[in-house]
Amino acid sequence: xxxPPQRTLSGTSCGVRFASFGAPLEVIELEQSEIPVPTxxxxxxxxxxxPVNPADLNVLEGKYGTLPALPCVPGVEGVGRVVSEGPDLxxxxxxxxxxxxxxxxxxxxxxxxGVVQASELVLVPEDVPVHQAAMxxxxxxTALCLLENFVALKPGDWVVQNAANSGVGRSVIQIxxxxxxxxxxxxxxxxxxxxxxxxxxDVVLEFGEGLGARIREVTGGVLPRLGLNAVGGESALALAKxxxxxxxxxxxGAMGLQPLRIPNGLLIFKDxxxxxxxxxxxxxxxxxxxxxxxxxKLLNWAAQGILHTPVEAVYPLEEARAAVAHAMRxxxxxxxxxxx
Length: 340
Ligand SMILES: NC(=O)c1ccc[n+]([C@@H]2O[C@H](COP(=O)([O-])OP(=O)(O)OC[C@H]3O[C@@H](n4cnc5c(N)ncnc54)[C@H](OP(=O)(O)O)[C@@H]3O)[C@@H](O)[C@H]2O)c1
Description:
Blueprint lengths: L11 E7 L5 H4 E7 L7 E10 L2 H8 L17 E7 L14 E3 L10 E5 L4 E2 L6 H5 L4 H10 L9 E4 L5 H12 L3 E6 L5 H6 L4 E4 L4 H9 L6 E4 L3 H9 L6 E4 L12 H5 L4 E4 L2 H7 L2 H17 L6 E6 L3 H8 L7 E5 L1
Parallel strand pairs: 8-9, 8-11, 9-10, 11-12, 12-13, 14-15
Antiparallel strand pairs: 1-2, 3-4, 3-6, 3-15, 4-5, 5-7
Helix pairs in contact: 4-5
The structure holds NADP nicotinamide-adenine-dinucleotide phosphate.
NADP nicotinamide-adenine-dinucleotide phosphate binds next to helix 2, helix 4 and helix 5.
C-alpha cells in the first residue's frame, strides 16, 4: 500500500556551502535554501550535530584524496532525526519518523535539512549519547579497522601510535583497552598523561629524543608489531624504528604535512611493511554485513561509555565560521561540533 509523506516541511533552511577551494575561513559561506522534499525511497533528515573534522578542512582547502564537485556543502559525518518520509518506502513506511540516524557519506552534514535514501540509514539507539553518535562514522570506525585489519593481535600485545590525543587516537586507546591490547601513545606536548591514562592508555610518551629507548624500557624490550601514524615526517620514522621485525606501520593521517622517509635498512633488515588506510575506501568496499557488524560494535561501545570522544565546543550552524576557526586551533581538548 502506498503511504503518503507523514509531514512535509516547507520554507528555507540554513546550510554552509563553498564554491571554490582555498583557506577554509575564506571559502565557506552561509546560505538559505529550500528545504528539499523527499522523493521515491527517500526521507528528510534534520541534522542534530556534525563535527568539524580535519578531513573537512582538507576538502575545503582542496587538499584531499578526492574532491567534490562545486558548489557543495561540507561535512563528512553527523547525526540527525528523520522528520518526514517520501513515497515508496515499502515495509519501512511509517516506521522512520523521529528515528535518530547516522548521516551517510556524501550527505554534506553542515546543513540543517537534507534527504537520504532510506536504504542508506543507520539507526542510532536512543541510549547512544547524541554527540558520540555524531562522531562515530569516521574516527572510531577508523580506529577499529586499524586495530583489526592489519596485524593479528592478541591480548597483551603492544600497539604504538602518534597523535594519540586526537579523536582517532583516543578511540584506538579505548578499543584497545576493551580488547586487552596495550598502547604506547606518542603525543607532541606534555601534560596529557593523566587524561589519556584515564581513558585506558598504558603509556604516554612525549615525542622527542630517544623514543625507541624509552619504549624498550617501558615494555621490557618487547616491541610492538603495529604502529599507527597520523603525523608523517620524523614522527612516523620514529614510530617505524620502534617496531619489531616484520612489524607494520599504517599511515592514515598526515597532520605534520611532512612526507614519510623510509630508510632502506628498515625494509632490508627489519622487513617492515608500510601500509595505508582510508575509511572512505573501507566503506566503499565493505559488504552490508561488514558495515552492520562495525556499526553494531561502535554503537554498543558508545552506549556503554567505552567509546567517548570529548567535545570542546558546540556552535549553532549559523556560527559555522567561528566553529571552523575553533577547530583549526592546536592543543584542543576535544572536538568542535555544529548544531543543526
Ligand atoms: N585515513 C582515514 O580514513 C582517516 C579517518 C579519520 C581521521 N583521519 C586523519 O587522522 C588525523 C586525526 O584526525 P582526528 O579527527 O582524530 O583529529 P583531531 O581530533 O582533530 O586531533 C588532531 C590531532 O593532531 C595533532 N596534530 C596537529 N598538528 C600536528 C602536527 N603538526 N604534528 C603532530 N601532531 C599534530 C593534534 O595535537 P595537539 O592536541 O597537540 O594540537 C591532535 O592530537 C587527521 O589527519 C585525519 O585526517 C584519517
